[in-house]
């Protein structure tokens, strides 16, 4: 018994000594942080967990900044895609007419309808897609260098497609809530849901239509994201690689590469974005059925009833939404990555 007590006492003394050492070192550590806060921050940023998380955190922050800037354009884009549904003829909606209608029906801030859902979507979607893309690119670069090769466009495209598809799957509920909130104003006043925010929209959709309804339009959303990321991330990375030896400065290279990426992202993804909007906006008809059974049915009906060019209605507006969003996102992400190196 006495030996056990002595062992416990020795362990207690050792723990006390360790605690005293830590306490003695604490003022020195605090002083060091005060004298050189940058070095202390760098030490934290260099921990394995933080290094792995940074691409995701930086990507999400960049996407949320960009969405706050671009939200009014996104609102107009959605309303353009829903205008004249099911009809080949009739008044042709324009960005200006849609903007006038929104402002005439309410307030200027109505252009920011669905911002909470947009921010949630970016917090999930852009965090995942940019973080995964960066992670995939690092892995592919290491593999290419081990073989004495340089990473090519095919690897960039694969990384962009995979990152986009995975990110779109997990962010679909927020995307659905965004479309519902933005399209709510098109309904008769008595039929509007008048969502109070993204949380209210998600809970009511899940309660009234079922949890799985939160993944309505997931297939075109995933295909759209893969097409968009193929255009945005792959072409941005490729354009930066091509411009690396040009006379442009780093900032000009990033801006030019972002503009190129925005065009290709818009071109490849707009038809899928159009179908995603239609599928996510739809609600049950009086007979209990939906206007569209799925992406293929939506594609066929739009071709038959509205014509193939309807898929590219609002391309200019979509580009104005995608290109600046891509530029702001990629610029902010580039800057955040620079200061957290």
From TrEMBL:
Ranges: Solcar repeats: 50-139, 151-242, 249-339
A cellular component annotation (GO) from this entry: mitochondrial inner membrane
GO biological process terms held by the UniProt record: transmembrane transport
One Pfam family per UniProt: Mito_carr
Statement: the UniProt record of this protein carries the keyword Transport: yes
Compartments (UniProt record): Mitochondrion inner membrane
Entries under InterPro entries matching the protein: MCP (IPR002067), MCP_dom_sf (IPR023395), MCP_transmembrane (IPR018108), Mito_Metabolite_Transporter (IPR050391)
Membrane topology reported for the UniProt record: Multi-pass membrane protein
Coiled-coil ranges (or none): none
Keywords annotated in UniProt: Membrane, Mitochondrion, Mitochondrion inner membrane, Repeat, Transmembrane, Transmembrane helix, Transport
Membrane-crossing segments per the record: 214-235, 255-275
Family per record: Belongs to the mitochondrial carrier (TC 2.A.29) family.
Name of protein: Mitochondrial 2-oxoglutarate/malate carrier protein
Species per Swiss-Prot/TrEMBL record: Meristemomyces frigidus
């Amino acid at each position: 018994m006495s030996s056990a007590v002595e062992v416990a006492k020795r362990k207690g003394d050792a723990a006390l000594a360790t605690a005293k050492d830590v306490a003695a070192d604490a003022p020195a550590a605090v002083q060091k942080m005060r004298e050189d806060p940058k070095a202390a921050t760098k030490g934290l940023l260099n921990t394995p967990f933080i290094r792995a998380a940074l691409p995701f955190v930086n990507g999400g922050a960049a996407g949320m900044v960009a969405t706050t800037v671009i939200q009014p354009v996104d609102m107009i884009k959605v309303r353009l895609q829903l205008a004249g549904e099911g009809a080949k003829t009739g008044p042709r909606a324009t960005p200006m007419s849609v903007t006038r209608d929104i402002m005439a029906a309410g307030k200027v801030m109505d252009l920011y309808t669905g911002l909470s859902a947009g921010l949630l979507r970016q917090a999930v979607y852009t965090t995942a897609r940019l973080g995964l893309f960066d992670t995939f690119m690092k892995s592919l670069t290491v593999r290419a260098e081990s073989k004495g090769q340089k990473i090519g466009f095919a690897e960039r495209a694969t990384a962009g497609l995979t990152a986009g598809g995975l990110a779109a799957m997990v962010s679909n509920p927020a995307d659905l809530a965004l479309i519902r909130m933005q399209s709510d104003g098109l309904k008769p006043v008595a039929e509007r849901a008048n969502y109070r925010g993204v949380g209210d929209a998600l809970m009511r959709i899940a309660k009234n239509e079922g949890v799985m309804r939160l993944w309505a339009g997931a297939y075109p959303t995933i295909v759209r994201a893969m097409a968009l990321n193929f255009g945005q991330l792959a072409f941005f990375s490729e354009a930066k690689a091509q411009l690396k030896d040009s006379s442009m400065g780093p900032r000009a290279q990033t801006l030019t590469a972002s503009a190129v990426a925005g065009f290709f992202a818009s071109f490849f993804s707009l038809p899928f974005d159009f179908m995603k909007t239609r599928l996510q906006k739809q609600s049950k008809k009086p007979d209990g059925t939906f206007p569209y059974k799925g992406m293929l049915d939506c594609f066929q009906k739009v071709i038959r009833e509205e014509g193939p060019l309807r898929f590219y209605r609002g391309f200019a507006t979509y580009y104005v939404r995608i290109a600046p969003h891509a530029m702001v996102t990629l610029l902010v992400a580039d800057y955040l990555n620079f200061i957290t190196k």
